[in-house]
Amino acid sequence: MEVQHLLSGFCSTPMVQNPKTQFFARLPSSSSTASTYFGQSHKWVSFKACPCNSQRALSRIECRSSTERSGVIASSDSEDLGNGIRRKKLAVFVSGGGSNFRSIHEACIRGSIHGDIVVLVTNKQGCGGADYARDKGLPVVLFPKTKKEPDGISPIDLVAVLRGLEVDFVLLAGYLQLIPVELIQAYPRSIVNIHPSLLPAFGGKGNYGMRVHKAVIASGARYTGPTIHFVDEHYDTGRILAQRVVPVHANDTAEELAARVLREEHRLYVEVIAALCEERIFWREDGVPIIRSKENPNEYS
Predict the structure, then answer these.
(1) What's the pTM?
(2) DSSP state letters, 159-223
(3) What per-residue string of b and e applies to 239-277 under the rule 16 or more CB within 10 Å gives b?
(4) Could you give the CA distance from residue 271 to residue 132 in angstroms, rounded to a whole number?
């Protein structure tokens, strides 16, 4: 049973009795095809029932809320840009409320990003980001397996799920777990993270969320801001892709600074993902990634 069949099975309109119902799909291991995608996993992937276009269920999942399209795509027949660049399939990883995830999803819907979120991965199945994903009809995968989340899947199975969904890019949006080497090897130069400071300052293990903003203020730094970087085997050490400067005011609280940085995070992440999906990321000979301007192809940042 291929991935699109698994997903489409949970979007059959006649089966929906309550649109708020949450389903859990056990990843099968009884067939060789299923094993190709999911290894031998018996863990759970959660879905929320939602009205869908069943006529194209095998080629495209079009779960909708009352006013929005979820953007889940299960095939490669999505529309291209004028230059022939196909829409990209995105996996987003979250651990908390997922405000950047929501911003990215909304940008996909309104067309600012030439791509669609096809799965949400989380290490906390009850977090706000996971609730939002289920509400929008997006599949939610629990990773990794821990004492608090014993139903999480393994790194190998995670790679298999993403491969089965034909994911092009992995986007970390407040995901507080170290990315396993198996995923980094499977998606070279295709995993990005956003950090709430100007890396390499105030990065590394344990530096996340409000801790970062408190440290910035305590240091006396006059400027901070979000950094988007490619992900390697360590915390916050991958190649920097984009940054946005935010001033630190003399009487800032950590909460005030966090809110100011977050507004820029939402703008910058959407801009960078748009560039990824439009294939405007280039690598200099020294290994530094740069972004080609959409308006002026001869300019880079």
Answers:
(1) 0.78
(2) HHHHHHTT--EEEESS--SPPPHHHHHHSTT-EEEEESS-TTTT-STT--HHHHHHHHHHHT-SE
(3) ebbbbbebebeeebebeebbebbbebbbebbbbbbbbbb
(4) 22
How confident is the prediction for the chain on average, in pLDDT? 81
Point out the catalytic residue in the list 195, 213, 229, 266: 195
Digit-coded pLDDT (tens) for 60-97: 223 333 233 334 433 344 566 667 999 999 999 999 99
Instruction: Compute the distance between CA of residue 46 and CA of residue 23 in angstroms, rounded to an integer.
Output: 6
| Burial of 98 from C-beta contacts in 10 A (0-12 / 13-18 / 19+) | buried
Domains of the chain: 61-291 (3.40.50.170)
What is the per-residue pLDDT for 70? 39
Q: How many residues does the chain have?
A: 301
Q: Are 162 and 186 in contact (CB under 8 A)?
A: yes
How far apart, in whole angstroms, are the C-alpha atoms of residue 210 and residue 292?
32
Assess whether 195 carries a catalytic annotation. Answer: yes
Contact 114, 88 (CB under 8 A): yes
List, in order, residues 6 or more apart from 30 with CB less than 8 Å away: none
For residues 28 and 58, give the distance between their C-alpha atoms in angstroms, rounded to a whole number: 18
